[in-house]
Structures are given as structure tokens and as C-alpha cells.
Automatic annotation (TrEMBL):
Pfam families: LXN. InterPro entries: CYSTATIN_LXN, Cystatin_sf, Latexin. Keywords: Protease inhibitor, Repeat. The keyword Repeat applies. SUPFAM superfamilies: Cystatin/monellin. GO terms for molecular function: metalloendopeptidase inhibitor activity. This is LXN protein. Belongs to the protease inhibitor I47 (latexin) family.
């Protein structure tokens, strides 16, 4: 829908698949508004989810406690590897990278872009004095339209009760 002097609005209906419970889906509707002439302004997105996805509370707490108990900060590269494999112990890191890449995609998308997380090139945990976990990522995003692979440096803060926040 073209909205005079504002932008283009898209109304979407889609199914979301639970990444932790393959085969389980929920219906979702979304409205996305791309503002006219403003490639520096993130699109407005309104989402409604009909149904619930599986709770990750137990797995979140387990991962949080495991990372907090490490003697050295977590460091990893090339997730997934060149064969598409993600080691099970790094699956939560890969999921957090998806969240971070989703934020980058949302903030930098236009009607003519299509970003996809290709790989976590590098991730390093940074020790903090508060309760949050901090991960500094170098993400490789594949821009499907131009076929470019773009590196993005992203700092993500995460806590099981507060969720994920991209701070940089």
C-alpha cells in the first residue's frame, strides 16, 4: 500500500517455525512500513503472533550458568563451519547471532535488500561486572540481492530474564 508522503506499507501473513521444536509453527501477521526517501531510518514493524512457541526458560538458564562458570571467556570462529555444522555446545551462540543479525537487518534494510546470516566469523565473550553476558560478534551477512557478503561487528548483551539487546 502506498501512503502519500509517508512510504510503502506491506501487510504480511506468515508461519513461524520454532527453531527449537522443528515442525511446530505459529501463525503471524506483520505490517512493515518503509519510509519514503529515508534509507537511514529503520522500517516500522508491527507483529502479532497467534499462539506460543516452546519455552526456552530451562535451556536459557542452563546456558547462562554454563557461560558464567567458564574460567576463560568463550571464543569461537566459523559458526557454522564450511560444511554447515554447528557444534551442539555452540548452538545457543548461533541463536544469539541470529538475534543480532535480525537487529542489523531491521536497522539497515530497505525495500531493495534481503539480508541473511551466513556465518559467525568470530565471537568473543567479554567479562562484565553486572549480570549480563556480553558477546562481541563479527557476523557475515549475505545480502541476497547484490550477492555481497558483508561483515558486521555487533555487541550483544543477554540475560535470561531480560532477553537480548544489541548495544553496538
Amino acid at each position: 500500500q502506498d501512503i502519500d508522503d509517508v512510504g510503502h506499507k506491506y501487510c504480511l501473513e506468515l508461519e513461524l517455525e520454532d527453531v527449537l521444536d522443528k515442525g511446530r509453527t505459529v501463525s503471524c501477521t506483520a505490517e512493515v512500513l518503509y519510509h519514503l526517501g529515508s534509507s537511514s531510518c529503520a522500517p516500522d514493524v508491527q507483529v502479532t503472533v497467534q499462539g506460543e512457541l516452546r519455552s526456552t526458560e530451562g535451556a536459557d538458564e542452563e546456558f547462562y550458568n554454563r557461560i558464567r562458570s567458564l574460567e576463560k571467556e568463550l571464543v569461537a570462529e566459523n559458526i557454522p563451519d564450511s560444511h554447515g555444522n554447528v557444534p551442539p555446545e555452540l548452538e545457543p551462540i548461533h541463536l544469539l547471532a541470529w538475534v543480532a543479525s535480525g537487529y542489523v537487518s531491521w536497522q539497515n534494510s530497505t525495500e531493495n535488500t534481503q539480508f541473511h546470516l551466513a556465518q559467525v566469523k568470530h565471537v568473543k565473550q567479554v567479562k562484565r561486572n553486572d549480570e549480563d553476558l556480553q558477546f562481541d560478534f563479527v557476523l557475515l551477512l549475505h545480502e541476497m540481492v547484490s550477492q555481497e557478503v558483508l561483515p558486521w561487528q555487533v555487541t550483544l548483551l543477554w540475560h535470561p530474564q531480560r532477553g537480548a539487546r544489541v548495544s553496538q
